[in-house]
Amino acid sequence: MTFTFRPLDPLKDGELLHAWVTHPKAAYWMMQDAKPEDVERAYMEIAADEHHHALLGLSDGEPAFLMEYYDPRYRELVGLYQPLPGDVGMHFLVPATDKPVHGFTRSVITAVMARLFDDPATSRVVVEPDVSNTAVHALNEAVGFVAEREIVKPEKPALLSFCTREQFTAAVGVSA
Q: Is 109 helix (H, G, I), strand (E, B) or coil?
């Protein structure tokens, strides 16, 4: 599968995002009770933030998933671990569907990681999913992430995990 990326437009994409992040299968996104204006506001804040970015992943030109990346020196993980130069934090969301495609989510995380490693300044990707999100732990491991330890974030207990460019390349069999 081949994906393309475009910057998220909080106004244009707000309704779509609202449907994605409030769906019961997106519980780990922690926006279940968000109103459309809450989602729009959250992504307007990201759009204005020099250390946090949101992209839509497109499949055949149509929105297929959400990707966020951030600088962990300034967002999400401040004070919870010692960032190294080249660290980039990442989140991704594949929306619920009535017609699941086998291997789609793994293709998405692989594309997200390749996109991050396209930047030569990125040497390691860091994630902090909820400790109970075993499905995403398995996906992370499949693309080369190694869990380091559990941490306590204000909103959740999280599993701090890292993936270097070399670990990603070895796991997925492509050069990054």
A: helix
The amino acid occupying position 84 is L
Amino acid at residue number 46: I
Distance from CA of residue 2 to its chain's centroid? 18
Q: Which of 56, 23, 28 is CA-nearest to residue 135?
A: 28
Residue 78: other Cβ atoms inside 10 A: 11
Q: Please name which of 112, 107, 109, 117 lies closest in space to residue 164, comparing C-alpha atoms.
A: 117
Compute CA 51 distance to the chain's CA centroid, rounded to the nearest angstrom. 14
Strand ranges in the chain using DSSP code E only, listed in sequence order: 3-7, 52-59, 62-70, 87-93, 124-127, 146-153, 156-164
Would you say 65 and 94 are in contact if contact means Cβ atoms under 8 Å apart? yes
Tell me the two tokens of residue 93.
């969301």
Percent of the chain with pLDDT over 70: 98
Phi then psi for 19, rounded to 5 degrees? -60, -40
Q: What are phi and psi of 108, to 5 degrees?
A: -65, -50
The model carries a pTM of 0.93
pLDDT at 176 over 60: no
Q: Find all residues with CB under 8 Å of 72, minimum gap 6, and list them.
A: 78, 81, 83, 87, 88, 89, 126
